């Protein structure tokens, strides 16, 4: 269940004067790209904008945090053009995805949080096109204010509205306890599929349609 509160119920919470009115995923969502009272909004941005920002902010992070952001691939201090290439297409031994659609939480021109979704194929779910969530990141001074939750909800809502998409998958480093708590709070569940990504043990997590996650039509 991808909701802030209990199944199908309406929840309301305040974050630093910003009212995020949330209605359960199984009910209906207010549009995610509305401008909040504090001038903070969730919006879709270009790959170039996202990559430029991520390369800058990730440089400031300790290596173990950077390693968590997409299993070292985006987390390595990249040049902007190689980050753009990496976000434009992705292929591994078991998955092949098209370009990322990036979402940010922005306070005017300042980005606070980011995530993206891609569409493609993975051997884990061979007979379907899946969406993959990635590069989930909030700048350190803005953590635990609900920004990543708002961003991931917008991205998964967008993904699950695409024709034929029934599932959102993502890879989470097993040692990343904060991230695991975060995805649990959004209704993602760990699968039995694991791998080593640059020596980091990781598990695939999923959120599916049909278990109360239907986005607003
Ligand atoms: C994981 C991360 C993206 C969370 O971002 P955030 O904006 O702080 O997350 P939110 O404030 O939206 O958190 C929402 C929920 O996640 C959980 N959560 C977030 N941070 C947590 C922490 N440090 N410890 C425990 N739970 C946490 C909470 O359950 C919280 O729900 P609640 O406050 O409604 O109870 C952020 O810590 C981050 O950027 N970490 C470094 C990069 C990374 O590890 N990315 C994930 C890669 S898979």
Describe the 3D structure.
This protein has 217 residues and is an alpha+beta fold. It is 24% helix and 35% strand. The chain has 5 helices and 11 strands; from the N terminus they run βββαααβββββαβαββ. Strands 3, 4, 5, 6, 7, 8, 9, 10 and 11 form a 9-stranded mixed sheet that branches. Strands 1-2 form a two-stranded antiparallel ribbon. β10 (189-197) and β11 (200-208) form a beta hairpin. The structure holds coenzyme A.
| Shape label | globular
Radius of gyration: 16 Å
Fraction of residues in H or I helices: 10-25%
Which hetero ligands occur in this complex? coenzyme A
Name the structural class: alpha+beta
Secondary-structure element pattern, one letter each: EEEHHHEEEEEHEHEE
Protein name: N-acetyltransferase domain-containing protein
InterPro entries: Acyl_CoA_acyltransferase (IPR016181), GNAT_dom (IPR000182)
Domain N-acetyltransferase: 55-207
GO molecular function, one term: acyltransferase activity, transferring groups other than amino-acyl groups
What keywords describe this structure?
Aminopeptidase, 24% helix, disordered N terminus, 217 residues, 11 strands, nine-stranded mixed β-sheet, single chain, 5 helices, binds coenzyme A, alpha+beta, two-stranded antiparallel sheet
List the SSEs and their pairings.
Layout: E1 10-15, E2 18-23, E3 40-44, H1 47-59, H2 63-68, H3 80-88, E4 90-91, E5 95-97, E6 101-107, E7 110-122, E8 130-138, H4 147-160, E9 167-173, H5 177-185, E10 189-197, E11 200-208
Parallel strand pairs: 8-9
Antiparallel strand pairs: 1-2, 3-6, 4-5, 5-7, 6-7, 7-8, 9-11, 10-11
The structure holds coenzyme A.
Coenzyme A binds next to helix 2, strand 8, helix 4 and helix 5.
